[in-house]
Write a structure and sequence with these properties.
mainly alpha, single chain
Length: 122
């Protein structure tokens, strides 16, 4: 078997995923582009396992399984973040996400609490 075709296909998939991550503004499409990159890595791992016989048998397939599990966890956490972002901002545009915490002004004290605390201590 010639491994050139799967390697070129994986390189194209990975390049398409990088392009999607860098150019998309929608968070869901960015997650889909990351999935494309992970699938390209899976294709490389399985192709390398079938073409180059390693010391450990089927090690590329085992690593591909770990990448699939990692991708499932990433999608679960990523979609939870996107849903929370949509609830707060009503948009999933990545450009509109604030990267710094807002500075909050200190809360004013309620008028009756200071006198009540001093009376309890008497």
């Amino acid at each position: 078997m010639r491994p050139v075709i799967p390697y070129v296909t994986a390189a194209l998939l990975f390049g398409l995923g990088v392009y999607g991550v860098l150019r998309r503004r929608n968070a869901v499409l960015v997650l889909m582009a990351v999935e494309l990159m992970l699938n390209a890595v899976n294709l490389i791992l399985v192709t390398a396992d079938t073409t180059a016989r390693a010391v450990l048998p089927h090690s590329g397939q085992v690593f591909a399984l770990f990448v699939i599990v990692l991708a499932a966890a990433e999608i679960g956490v990523g979609l939870a973040i996107v849903l929370q972002l949509y609830r707060l901002r009503a948009s999933v545009a990545v450009d509109e996400v604030p990267l710094t915490e807002p500075t909050e002004s200190p809360q004013p004290a309620v008028a009756g609490t200071a006198g009540r605390d001093s009376e309890v201590g008497r």
